[in-house]
């Protein structure tokens, strides 16, 4: 099955200082009314949403605030589709509108046609079985080499729309600082009730050099 992995650039949001960003409150799939109390960046984002989104009682706000240092990841850096590529109850893709505040880490999106296996049944925790990470790594590498796929990086304050067919991954921070990624989600069914580890307050760091691996070894999970 061929799917199109795309994003739509909606515009640029007003920037917020690091002093404001650091005080925003992460939201684990909360209602719009509840998320309005999460801080000025959340309020501005919600007020910018289309009328159909703001008046839809099923739209959820999903955000995460992190402090990152150079080389740290906001989450595991593997290519993925949000919600495992799940569709809404009417069969359409789950839609997301998202904005990034803070310059520490820019999400990488892959744009273009992708070959995806047919989705299988939903697992007990609500996540679909999906192809292994190695498949996406090799498919993306081949697509970038041939020119059929392109990389696109989310810049600070950019507001975009994408859906559960859009392949993307986290990238390491290039600078130190606070970062809040705010999403509005439309069409997500109750089958995915657990927001997962994405909502936990953790910073990801992957050692690369031999010296970094040696220094990091005592802190790794056994």
Automatic annotation (TrEMBL):
Region (Disordered), start-end ranges: 115-136
Protein name: Phytanoyl-CoA dioxygenase (PhyH)
């Amino acid at each position: 099955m061929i799917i199109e992995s795309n994003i739509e650039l909606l515009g640029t949001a007003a920037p917020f200082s690091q002093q404001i960003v650091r005080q925003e409150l992460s939201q684990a799939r909360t209602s719009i009314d509840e998320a309005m109390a999460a801080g000025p960046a959340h309020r501005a984002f919600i007020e910018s949403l289309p009328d159909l989104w703001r008046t839809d009682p099923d739209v959820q706000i999903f955000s995460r605030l992190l402090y990152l240092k150079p080389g740290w990841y906001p989450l595991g850096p593997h290519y993925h589709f949000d919600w495992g590529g799940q569709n809404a109850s009417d069969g359409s893709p789950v839609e997301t509108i998202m904005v990034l505040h803070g310059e520490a880490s820019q999400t990488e999106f892959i744009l273009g046609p992708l070959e995806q296996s047919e989705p299988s049944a939903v697992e007990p925790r609500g996540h679909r079985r999906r192809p292994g990470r190695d498949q996406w790594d090799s498919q993306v590498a081949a697509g970038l080499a041939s020119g059929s796929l392109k990389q696109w990086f989310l810049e600070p304050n950019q507001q975009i729309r994408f859906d559960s067919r859009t392949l993307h991954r986290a990238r390491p921070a290039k600078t130190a600082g606070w970062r809040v990624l705010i999403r509005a989600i439309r069409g997500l069914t109750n089958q995915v009730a657990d927001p997962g580890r994405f909502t936990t307050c953790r910073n990801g760091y992957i050692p690369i050099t031999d010296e970094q691996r040696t220094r990091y070894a005592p802190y790794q999970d056994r």
